[in-house]
Amino acid sequence: MNLAEIFETVPSDLAAYFEQIADGSLSEHEEFELNLLPVSDAVRWTKDFLDFHQVVSFFRGVILDDPNTSNHHVYLSKTCCSGAVFYLNHDGDSQIVFPTLEAFLDAACRASNTSQNLSAFHPDTGVQLADQKGLSELITGILDGEFDCDCDGVVVALVPSLDLTDITLLGRLVNDDDFYIAAAVGDAIARRPRSDLAAVAETCQRHKHLQAAKAGARALAAIASLK
Q: 101-144, pLDDT tens digit by residue?
């Protein structure tokens, strides 16, 4: 199996990455959840995930590892997220955790050298993408139904990568009927509070669903702690 089964033109950074890990030194360390997949296994896993997982399908993602935990790192190849690495967390928050494959590979090397879990090198607040305009436009397009898919899960996964400066978009998100979307905004504000986000947090706290309302309350508490 090879990447040509997934891409007409293989991204250069992805091709270089698989060459770099081909010696297997960053594979089969399941005692600290480090098992980067060689290209043939990555293609096999990816073809399965493309059939059913929203984020992998939407961004034409490639599964990079199998640490035997049901969690996976995924290379994203489309739109403003191209080149970033997403963490698909089966029992927790899924979000972009590395801006590039180079950063992902560096973390994998550090995990191997220190016998720590690769997830220990994830940033605490997710990765804010460089192309914030493109990200806002992408999320707006999803909300407006421009894509032929059920993409609410994609929006939830992208919220942690917003820099929280597009107040108009945030207001729309916290008013969304999907409480997961509203809660994601509340949680993002709680992690990166600013006083100018108080009105957005208050709207989130008034959400009709309890989970979103609690996230809004956490956001307001975090903002209050700044004073």
A: 999 999 999 999 999 999 999 998 889 999 999 999 999 999 99
Determine which of 89-93, 187-191, 207-211 has the lowest per-residue pLDDT on average: 89-93
Side-chain-facing half-sphere of 139: CA atoms under 13 Å: 25
Q: Where are the alpha helices (DSSP H) in the chain?
A: 12-20, 39-49, 54-58, 101-114, 132-143, 152-158, 167-174, 179-191, 198-205, 210-224
Residues β-bridged to residue 72: 88
Q: What is the pTM of this model?
A: 0.94
d(CA 101, CA 217): 36
CA dist 33 and 7 (Å) reads 28
Token pair 């702690």 in the structure block, residue: 225
pLDDT, position 91: 78
96 DSSP assignment:
E
Residue 21 has pLDDT above 80, yes or no: yes
Decide if pLDDT at 52 tops 90: no
Q: Which letter, b or e, does each residue of 199-226 get, where b requires 16 or more Cβ atoms within 10 Å of its Cβ?
A: ebbebbbebeeeebbbbbbbbbebbeee
Amino acid at site 128 = Q
- Beta-carbon-side half-sphere exposure of residue 45 (alpha carbons within 13 Å): 22
